[in-house]
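Extended Data, panel c. Modelled sequence:
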Amino acid sequence: MDRRIKKNQTAIMDALIQLMAEKDFEKITIHEIAECANVNRGTIYSHYLDKYDLLDKCIETQLKQLIESCLPVDDKGTYSSKASLLRTFELMEKNALFFRTLLTNKGVPSFRNHLQEMMKEGIREQIDENNLSLDDLRKEILVQFLSSATVGVIEWWFTHTMPCSAQEITEQLWALLQLNQVLPFIKQSDLVTQISD
């Protein structure tokens, strides 16, 4: 992709998020986005159908980066580990304005749903990769519980202006998941060892 095109797209997306931090998405106009991004309206329309398409592309870009941050660094890592959870929180911390804005803007309630669906998909993959023998009902309840708990913690972290670091929130969430024995990919013996340490 042409460097200038990429620069314009980044400026446009950043402008949208900046404006959303100030007012509801529904009240934002393409003219305001263009002004804030220092581009003309035609440039926006050359990349996006309308502001809704722009918002969808923003969300898609950020969630794709989140998914990539969850992946193991090497072939030996499990899909979801404490290290990948930390990388995810660090990426969200780095892009705090985006996540805080989309989780708190009344005009974008769908972002939370996108985030939770992404979590559900990852959890299902993890359950399947670890060959857990769960019937469909138990699997779906576990997926719903883990995704709801994680997204709830993420939402709390941002709506309370990140009262702790990415490292601290990762430690707390990981400990809660272990304590409640909802990390099925951790062997019971490993759990006992970690708790007693």
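The CA atoms of residues 127 and 185 lie 8 Å apart. This feature is highlighted in the accompanying rendering.
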